[in-house]
Amino acid sequence: MGVTSHAPSLDGRRFAATDVDAHGEVGLDTTFEYREKDGEIWGSYSGGSVRRGFLVGTRTGDQLDFRYSQLNIDGETSSGHCRSRIDVLTDGRVRLTETWEWESRTGSGTSAVEEFRS
Q1: What is the tally of structural domains in the chain?
Q2: pLDDT 10s digits, 99-113
C-alpha cells in the first residue's frame, strides 16, 4: 500500500471501513461521509451495527482529532474520541488510519476506512 504525503480535503468524500476492531461497533458494512472547511471536520456514518453516527472535530495537516456519537441497532447510544492519520494511496484514494477509544464505556482500538473507488 504506497502512500504520498500530500493529503487533499476530505469534503464530500465517502469511505468504507476496511479494517475493524472487535471492541468497536463499526463493521465492514459501515460507510462514512466526511465534510471539511477551514480546519473543521464533521460527518455521518451508518451501516451494520450502527444505525446512525456523527463525528465532529478538527484537522491539522494530515491529522484528524474528533469526537463521535452513535446509536446502534439495539437502540443504545455511545460516544468516544478518535485520532486519524490521512494517507493518499497510490491510486489517489484517501485512507484514514484511526486510533479510537470509547468515552461512554470501556474499550479502545484501531481501524481504517478507505475512500470508495470512483
Answers
A1: 1
A2: 999 999 999 999 999
